[in-house]
Amino acid sequence: MKRNFFKRVCAFLFLSLSSISLFAQAKRDALVLYNNRKFKEAIEVCDEEIKADPSHVDSYVVMCWSLVGNREYARAEQIAYDGLKQSRYDMRLIEVLGEAKYFLGKNSEALKQFQEYLSLAPDRTGSRVGTAYYYMGEIYIRQTKFQHADISLSAAVRKNPLSDSWWTRLGYAREMAGNYYESMAAYEEALKLDPLKTDAINGKDRVAAHLR
Residues with Cβ < 8 Å from 66, sequence gap 6 or more? Predict the structure, then answer.
């Protein structure tokens, strides 16, 4: 009798642990799929995770990243809001919501999200701090606030000095602001990273004409 009871308990524990292990594996798989740019598959895995456990915040995060990667910005915006109902101050959801709004052209709303993300990131050390500053800079360029764009993009390249695209956009913001010497320096940094960067080459030529 006791032996049968012990067997039933062991079987129950085995099934429970197996279920937990399978769920954890599914979560890892979603992130791996996202990192391998298999966005549609990652979205499907996260969708199943959320149906199984609507409070599982990591699933919302990876799903939003994957939706943005798949250019499904409106759905990413909605899923981010759903995730924030579960965890209002999750920095990852706040930041990716800003990205979704940026691509939807909701500039003021996106800017607000990035600013909130930066206010929450401890000592500006969050993994996507540079990205947030970059998108803020792009928003300010859209709004023709070129000095603001200079400040944000300068912060972005301090976080990621190896992005030729970000240096190029910093050069452009400074060029539009009339800060030609600083613009030239940014374009030259971009060309150190990619000597064939067309936008940086053209920008440098334009600025050189102003400085003659």
Answer: 30, 33, 34, 39, 40, 42, 43, 46
